[in-house]
Amino acid sequence: MTSLRTCALLFLLTACATTPSAPTTPQDEVVLAEDVRIRRIAPGVWMHVTNAGKEWGGTPANGLIVEDGDASILVDTGWNPRQAEALITWARDSLHHPVRAALVTHFHMDRTGGIPTLEAQGIAVHAREDTARRATAQGNPVPRSRLSDAQDFGPLSVFFPGAGHTPDNLLVFHPASGILYGGCFIKDASAKDLGNLEDADTTTWPASLQRARAHYPDARVIVPGHHAPGGSELLDHTEALLREAPPAASR
């Protein structure tokens, strides 16, 4: 009987002394909601995809979450506050790199729609002065902190190449991975046209693309504002679409 008690005690002590499991790492691809998903595209770099509501035809829009030390940076905020909430909750609870700052690449709703959630949680949202001005005029959420036309932002580099999809479109580069986030300034390989040209300047856009190439010659992967990433062929494809653009599209 004593021997049995001793064995039982040893078993319990061994079980209690077992080292706890390490925190699980996030999966490479995660669905957070029917209209929000995330995919790892490089070490420390995640592409988020949010889908618009019916008023925008369910269009998917890309953005990034980039790890920065023990925190992360959100690039573009999703179409609405609920989607932004899902992204920052995932970054905090699953990635364990809570969003400390955000930036938006132009003033349209697929970039700025989640700003109210970020502001409510005290997360600063950065953009060019022109982006803030145009968001205000459009009645879209307004980023309160400012970016210059060319600067470093944590592990990122931001650059304004000139007008294109919009007069204010900003590029974001992650030098460590060679990922260039082009936003809606760069079209995906499957695009048959330039998409929404309501605020575009198709006359200036080709020269702006050349400035983008010159500024980021080391870009290896390009993430467009919508649909699948690619390589430098996305710049070529965007230029080809611009050559076919009707003159009436120029702003």
From TrEMBL:
Monomer. Its cofactor is Zn(2+). SMART domains: Lactamase_B. It is found in: Periplasm. Belongs to the metallo-beta-lactamase superfamily. Class-B beta-lactamase family. Residues 60-226 form the Metallo-beta-lactamase domain. Residues 1-17 form the signal peptide. It holds the Pfam family Lactamase_B. Its EC number is 3.5.2.6. GO terms for biological process: antibiotic catabolic process; response to antibiotic. The lineage of its organism: Bacteria, Pseudomonadati, Myxococcota, Myxococcia, Myxococcales. PROSITE patterns: BETA_LACTAMASE_B_2, PROKAR_LIPOPROTEIN. This is beta-lactamase. It catalyses: a beta-lactam + H2O = a substituted beta-amino acid. One of its GO terms (cellular component) is periplasmic space. PANTHER family: ACYL-COENZYME A THIOESTERASE MBLAC2 (PTHR42951:SF4), METALLO-BETA-LACTAMASE DOMAIN-CONTAINING (PTHR42951). One of its GO terms (molecular function) is zinc ion binding. It comes from Corallococcus terminator. CDD domains: MBL-B1.
